Amino acid sequence: MADFKNFENCNDAVCIDAGRVYDSCCDRDCLEDLRCFFLPETQTLINNALSVRLRSAEVLNVFIDVEPVNFNKGYYSCDLTFFFLLSFDLYTSPSTCPQVINGIATFNKKVILYGSCGAVKTFSNIVGEECRNHHTNTFSGSNTPKCVVSAVDPVPLSAKIGTIHDCYESSCCIPDCVCEALGGHVVTDVPRGTPTVYATIGLFTVVQLIRNVQMLIPVYDFCVPQKSCDHSTAEPCDTFSRIQFPLDDFFPPRPDSIDDQKDCGCFTTEANG
After folding, report:
1. Positions in the chain whose pLDDT score sits under 70
2. Residue 255 located in a structural domain
3. What is the spatial distance between Cα 165 and Cα 33, in angstroms, rounded to a whole number?
4. Is residue 166 classed as helix, strand or coil in its secondary structure?
5. Which residues 6+ apart lie within 8 Å of 3 measured at CB?
6. How many domains does the chain divide into?
7. Which secondary structure element, helix H or strand E, spans residue 248, and what is its range?
8. In CA terms, which of 12, 16, 161, 270 is 20 to 30 Å from 52?
9. What integer pLDDT is reported at residue 137 of this predicted model?
10. What span, in angstroms and rounded, lies between the C-alpha atoms of 179 and 253?
11. Residue 244 CA neighbour count, 13 Å, CB half
12. Is 250 inside a domain boundary?
């Protein structure tokens, strides 16, 4: 196996075209009182509900729009729209079991990151949707850096039943690809005073601006797999016997044995959807 710590073992240097992360940030957001949207039949249940409990939260999709910042060359504004699938226990009376319902919530976030500058147009033999040439099958790539958003499923914190007070709460467009998670179109245009559900969740995100560049890197060796494929069909109990005993689950580590987590944040402006 090649020694990656010793540059003397470098066999050659090659030029590669790869995505370089020019800027990135991580953030934690406590999203309070997010308005939830439901299917018509679910909204009917909420109209007669007494209370609600948030069961789980999931990131369905993130719509990303990247635009250059005019007053600061090389910086880009990343407008992020998150769509969450939320699951609730809905109680219609004190003596009945809860009904499980699902809804959708949105959240808008803006992040400003450095993405460098470039003025080249990229062409490739990969057929693109923007431009099809019958002779050469080429397309022109955008010069805007690529924004990549990573997020774990949100932490469900709380939920409550409230009534719609402002008309702007209903001015929301949920795309069809998001509504498919519920199996139909959600109700967005409802009058004031209509009962609805407001949820509070915790969100952890990492945002990166990536640009493809040519880089010269040292080459140590080919990536030859060092592990053989496992074709074992051992008995379930034999497989179980090789699993390490989960000591941490029975004896949780003390606080002084856990590395301190340092917060980090983005330069952001945000608003609830």
Report:
1. 1-11, 119-120, 124, 126-142, 166-171, 230-233, 256-273
2. no
3. 13
4. coil
5. 9, 220
6. 1
7. helix 247-250
8. 270
9. 41
10. 42
11. 4
12. no
